[in-house]
Amino acid sequence: MTLRIAMAQLDMLVGDITKNTQSVIDAAHNARDEEQADVVVFPELTLTGYPPEDLLLRSSLDLRIESALAKILAEVHDIYVIVGYPRRIDGELFNCAGVIYQGELLLEYAKQKLPNFLVFDDKRYFREGEEAGIVDIRGVRVGLSICEDIWHPQPIAQAKAAGAELILNLNASPYHTEKMGEREALLHQRATEVSLPIVYVNYMGAQDELVYEGGSFAVNAKGLKVRQAPWFEAGLYCVDIIVDQSQPNKVEPVAGAISPALGLEASVYQAMVLGLRDYITKNRFKGIVLGLSGGIDSALSLAVAVDAIGADRVQAVMMPYTYTSSISLHDAEEEANLLGVKYSVLPIEPMVSAFTEVLAPEFDGYGKDTTEENLQARTRGVALMAISNKKGLMVLTTGNKSEMAVGYATLYGDMVGGYSVLKDVFKTLVFKLCRYRNTLGYVIPERVITRPPSAELAPDQKDEDSLPSYDILDEILRLYIEEDQSAGAILATGQFDRDTVYRVLRLVDVNEYKRRQAPTGVRITARGFGRDRRYPITNGWHIGE
């Protein structure tokens, strides 16, 4: 006998339980009728979308979930549906996976391991489950687990002890650059510990800063991958399980299609595109407007915007000032033409002059400093927000992680906007991503990639006049932000001088107030700014060993 399991990696809208429920019903019907599947498995908390955050505290949640389950029970037959949702039991809220078949809720399993680190806040909302969840599906004893459960040996060993012959794991596991390999290594370890095959079904889509890349897969009892669904593609992907009652290990997944692994640049770029597309679509923006400077960050952001929602919904605005070079004007126009977007040139000198004139009495007796530079950036921010308000377009900011880390950005200026695709992308990776994007089609002029980065807020200004080289800066930032290493530990690597390390770390610390006011953006590392990293703005912590 063959048991066909459809892995449903779908893109849900957080909070829209009615729409998500209909998506489950439609996918179940497709799995049954088009894929001839016996079972369809959906990710963790599918009915609410993930992560629902404090929507879980809403008083009407219970009624909405009960209504959703009743609808699935009534409308889906002749296929086993395994779906994730929150459920209140005896006054406590649990993160559940339910098994539905022929109008009955056969089993409800409650997640046992609740992550409470980085982007996860499960213990804020849920109580831990305690019991294994085993259900008989056409003669196969199937054990359920939910996301974090698979990262610990106990829940899977408990399922094996309860008689499980196959493990189904429902996930909402967010993307970061190392996560794909980590999951595969994990399932190899877990499967070999219990000598059971595991089917891992992951969420697909984006929610604010989090991206879920799908990539559902199955391993056999030896931990070898036998089926791999695509990354960053919603859909139903089937894995066949051979059931032979005459064999000791009677349940064996059949080798099927294995989607190729993605390289670093390809996976990051797709995460950026998906994150932006879902943010624009789910928040119902008409399109995007961004400031195009002729520099590398705005060039990459423009390419992502076009790939996410199409050139017809993107407007690029060049806002030159006295210090804007002719090269920048030429390159910005070329970028816009290569990508086919609407392009405007709005000189800001009259506006800056007007601000300067009005402020002259307040500035009397003070020499010129960064105030005048910031005024240029803030004027551009005003112009972009005016276009945004008038046309219903979202402003896409273009600052990268290196700049945001050390505060090399103007509050209420180039930080103005609704979303950022580079927020978690170090400058050194920006260069690589531009070259990667050009392999898909030439859209970023070579000179934009190779000439020294500059904010062009002062004559002959270069980023490295104010900052260490990006190779040095990004490695210090990685050690401090993503690995939480102290100044002493960073210096112990022998790569950097003391003054540079202390200066960079101080810049990171004192600019927390800026980052709190920055727009959300795609998370691509294991430790991005936002949900991952929560440091007090006001504090007396001293940089040290």
UniProtKB/TrEMBL annotation:
Residues 3-243 form the CN hydrolase domain. GO terms for molecular function: ATP binding; glutaminase activity; NAD+ synthase (glutamine-hydrolyzing) activity; NAD+ synthase activity. Its EC number is 6.3.5.1. It catalyses: deamido-NAD(+) + L-glutamine + ATP + H2O = L-glutamate + AMP + diphosphate + NAD(+) + H(+). In the C-terminal section; belongs to the NAD synthetase family. Catalyzes the ATP-dependent amidation of deamido-NAD to form NAD. Uses L-glutamine as a nitrogen source. This is Glutamine-dependent NAD(+) synthetase. It comes from Marinomonas algarum. It holds the Pfam family CN_hydrolase.
